# Entry
Amino acid sequence: MFEHLTPYAGDPILSLVETFNADPRPHKVNLCIGIYFDNDGKMAQPHSVHIAEERVGMGIKNYLPMEGHAGLRAEIPKLLFGTNHPVITENRVSVVQTLGGSGALRLGADFLHTWLSGGKAYVSDPTWDNHRGIFTAAGFEVGDYPYYNPETIGVKFQELCEFAKSQPENTIFLLHPCCHNPTGVDLSREQWDELLDIFVSHKLIPFMDIAYQGFGDDFDQDAYAVRRAADLGLPLLISSSFSKNMSLYGQRTGGLTVVSPSAEEATLVLGQLQLGIRRIYSTPPAQGGLTAYHVLSNETLTAQWKQEVYKMRDRIRAMRQRIYEVLQQKQPEKDFSYFVKQRGMFSYTGLSVVQVHRLRDEFGVYLLDSGRICIAGLNESNVNYVADCLATVFAE
Ligand code: LMR
# Structure
């Protein structure tokens, strides 16, 4: 009955983690997945989130509403836009609790495909491995927009702007407001201003995926592009996640926020999102949503949580610095400053597939074939070893 099925080749990130887990070498290092590990190599949860989790206890056994926990839904836009932003006070946001950021992406992609069909979707070149798949699964023809420039280790900004200008109305652009995954290379504020002006004049639709808020500069600055797009009155979709900044990975806690031109439209949008949720998984899980709500609705816990995220951010920065210093000292003829300039958890190393495989096979250092390395997997015990291994393969 199922003989004709095509075999699944596996996911470039999640399947690699399985290979890593099965690797018996004690010195192996997991730098392939976007998870924050602490200096002891443990998946640490911010203490504020732990307190919230204890307060929630066993949580509620009843179903949440289709759209998720009402309190959490009220907090998510404050984190994205800042308290009292006009899109909130004018009731122009529709927010639903989702199954992590991925669930928000799929729900949003399904929504757009149903109600704005005809438009094509573009993802950055390169992007997170699952973006293209999610939009393709929702029925979109998916293309790439110019983004990363390996020559400058920056953004092909003029090409990106020209490309945006050449697209028809209602074309969807999946954007990373901060901590670009996989490159760690972000647009500057001036570049966001220029790009989003093009979105206004050419009636393009930004879908912003913000999975790492707090890990770039701070919670407010990381949301600059989101706020700017809202200020400009753009129709806007935002997928957000508490997987990384609250370490609620397995709880699948995120949100989809849609900004509409009017409160009436926002009500219609919410209805369609509820319907979409009901048709796929009915209601979201309660525990993670309740935990995130407890953190965000309590001023003291929120302040503590933000400081804890900034400590995680600073530890990542310190690891970037260490990698940079070792490599620069060993190979002064090359410029490794990109390791410290890139933001968020990831660094695009520029390593070839052959070099990546050598790191994995010979040294037990796991990173993605694209050369993406998760800096948050480094710590005092492994950073020198990894830096030495990188220096060895860079010297090839
Ligand atoms: C990553 O990029 O490694 C994370 O977002 C985890 C995932 O689901 O791929």
